Amino acid sequence: MPSALTDIRDQETAITGLLNLLRRRAIPQAMLFTGIDGIGKGTAARRFAMAVNCDRRADQEVHQLPCGACRNCRRIVAGHHPDILHLAPRGAFMRIDQIRALCDTLALKPYEAGTRLAILQGAQSLNPEAGNALLKILEEPPEGTILILTAPQTSDLLPTIVSRCRRVRFNPLRQETIAALLTARKDIDPALAATIAAMARGSYSRAAAMATGDWADRRHWVLAGIGLLEPAAAGGAAVGRLLAFAEQLVKAKSHLEDSLELIKSWLRDLAVIQHAPDKVLHQDLMANLAAEKLALTERELVARYDAVEAAQRALRGNANRRLCIETLVLRLNGLLPATPLRSL
Question: Is 291 exposed, middle or buried (0-12, 13-18, 19+ CB in 10 A)?
């Protein structure tokens, strides 16, 4: 199994920076790894901890670190090394008692490692009290200790915390990388893997969750229910069926945003397939797209796409969810003008 920092995919700039720190032996006592979830920040933090404490560090080229096979590396991978500390949110927040416990541990000398590392994964979840407590550690970090924080972006943290950390930026993964990982690890059809990769917005963890869940079935349910895979019934029957589907969509609150993004991706593909079929996201449903592509003009597709975006903005502004979605599904089927939702 790959173990070196250089085995982490699509993060050449970030990994090169970390290797340079190891090469120069000039490691800052606090670092902040930023980027969306599911792109390797946590893996990089763990492998950096391994590289710093690798038993074979003196004998290995920096780009080969960590070795992954020595005693320290194996214990860190297993989560059993006493000097590699991991903190994660407890529920929605990382709380002050967790930071206080970390302070107590860091006040002691490392048990056996030359350098102790504390990895705070999801540091954006620090509540205000915990953030201020962590700031005290960053202002006077214990000797022989490195702290690595991970968060989506610097704006999620107190500016005073950010200013005391060396920032390392991680990028979204390429679609090709995600598709290859899905095919190798999840044993799914390459066409479906390519579609999921395109929908995952650069995050492997998001793609993996889609691949192991009922995403393909849910996609069909959303697109068919909203009338984009199958033509709606005529007249009052269409309105009744669509409003019933809108009610189901609203009830599935946790999936609503993803469902709207899915609808947008389908409308996008209906426009793209006419000009650049190789750029279609839903490659596994090309036959369905080809059958539907002439049903709407490009002007109508753009108007419907804009209607979905307007609905998303309205929902973010605390609009009435049911009214917003009911209006949207009718607009997507031409039963109402596809104009922006200004009054919801």
Answer: exposed
Environment class of 104 (CB within 10 Å of its CB; exposed 0-12, middle 13-18, buried 19+): exposed
Quickly state the pLDDT bin for 236 (edges 50, 70, 90).
low
* pLDDT for position 48: 96
Q: Which residue has the higher pLDDT, 124 or 233?
A: 124
pLDDT in tens, 50-72: 999 999 888 888 899 999 999 99
Contact between 180 and 45 (Cβ < 8 Å): no
Residue 54 identity: C
Does 89 share its domain with 236?
A: no
Domain annotation covers residue 186: no
Per DSSP, the residues of 146-193 read EEEEEES-GGGS-HHHHTTSEEEE-PPPPHHHHHHHHHHHH---HHHH
Which residue range(s) make up the domain with 254? 214-332
Whether residue 94 is predicted with pLDDT greater than 90 in this model: the reply is: yes
| Domain end position, chosen among 111, 144, 169 | 169
Q: Show the DSSP H helices in the chain as ranges.
A: 12-24, 41-53, 71-78, 96-106, 128-139, 159-162, 175-186, 190-199, 204-212, 215-225, 235-251, 256-272, 286-292, 298-316, 321-332
Confidence of residue 344 (pLDDT cuts 50, 70, 90): very low
